[in-house]
Automatic annotation (TrEMBL), chains A, B:
Pfam families linked: SnoaL_2
InterPro entries linked: NTF2-like_dom_sf, SnoaL-like
Species of origin: Paractinoplanes deccanensis
Protein name as it appears in the record: SnoaL-like domain-containing protein
SnoaL-like domain sequence ranges: 10-101
Length: 118, 118
């Protein structure tokens, strides 16, 4: 398995298991993440981005995961208390065992709709 | 390059070039596509799904593409007349040179907001 994919999967398995502290050990302190709502800079901002999602997470199914020496691309589906099916895709750049850049993709529409209905 | 990735990239390059007819030659007649708004069944429904997006497409940048013998996963960013940055990810299953299943992910929120503002 490629180095980047090994890191991406270790990170994925950690947050899937609800272990945010362990997941963050795979995130570089100066990570840059381009998420649907805009750019996040730094591990603190990234942790704040993941936290509310993990609070409502029920289960995760990995759909595909590939990588080479520096990049990995994964797609998964997830079930949350707010949205029944919330797939995500992450394209990460890995350096020295941590994710230094992430392009993070999910559909915000069902979350916006569910929050408006609450 | 893996067989599935070759097909996924040929399809991607075709629609990127605006050639929907050529792109559709890589789509199975009975394709099933799980898109953000729900399941699409059949090449006709898939073509109707792509058509309005391609009409507003200005440019596409491939971010990552990987695959094995039967699955490929790609992520790209795109610029459209409606939404400046509209990334997408497609996880496709390929059989006999055509895409028989696709999990298609993009963020609908900026499209909904832009249409509401029009």
């Amino acid at each position: 398995m490629s180095l980047a994919l090994r890191t991406a999967l270790a990170y994925h398995e950690s947050w899937k298991a609800g272990d945010l502290d362990r997941a963050m050990t795979y995130i570089a302190g100066d990570i840059v993440c381009d998420a649907p709502a805009g750019r996040l800079t730094g591990a603190g901002a990234y942790r704040d981005f993941l936290t509310p999602y993990l609070r409502m997470l029920k289960s995760v199914t990995l759909l595909a995961a590939f990588g080479d020496d520096e990049k990995a691309l994964i797609m998964y589906d997830s079930a949350t208390t707010l949205v029944a099916s919330a797939p995500g895709a992450e394209c990460v750049t890995v350096r020295d065992g941590t994710i230094v850049y992430s392009r993070f993709l999910f559909d915000r529409a069902p979350f916006i709709a569910a929050r408006a209905a609450q």
